[in-house]
Design a protein that fits this description.
By secondary structure, the chain is mostly helical. Helix content is 51%, strand content 0%.
């Protein structure tokens, strides 16, 4: 939505691409990203909220021609499949959703069965990711 003639547009786009490149290298083997990108032992484990936002950001970049489809599509698909297979309960409840708080420790533990204090946030992130993943099929 940022106009093409906005003076800082190229700077923002370069930052975005740099962040996506860094995130790609931090994806876990199971498709998720950890709560702490810096330290996988600090609240390491599956986490839907951030993973959903990273999926959204990468899928949006592919859909809008800012990211290389061949490089980023496998990352997005791996993450989306992890969420769809491991986070969604049969009744639609989402697991591994981080709650609100000043720091990640305030919403721990993040588990498959725990209902966080603000679960709508996780649902919104998941739906945003799904909306961009859906567009990848077109």
């Amino acid at each position: 939505m940022l106009p093409k003639n906005e003076p800082h547009r190229n700077e923002y786009l370069a930052d975005y691409k740099s962040m996506m490149k860094a995130l790609a290298s931090l994806q876990r083997a199971d498709g998720y990203w950890n709560v702490s990108l810096h330290d996988p032992t600090n609240f390491g484990g599956k986490e839907l909220t951030g993973t959903s936002l990273f999926i959204y950001g990468m899928a949006w970049g592919i859909n809008n021609g800012y990211l290389d489809r061949n490089k980023y599509l496998p990352i997005v698909i791996k993450a989306w499949n992890a969420l769809a297979k491991e986070s969604v309960h049969s009744n639609g409840f989402l697991g591994y959703v981080q709650g609100t708080g000043k720091e990640p420790k305030e919403s721990q533990p993040v588990t498959y069965d725990r209902e966080p204090d603000f679960e709508d946030f996780g649902l919104g992130c998941f739906l945003m990711a799904g909306s961009e993943v859906y567009k990848l099929k077109k």
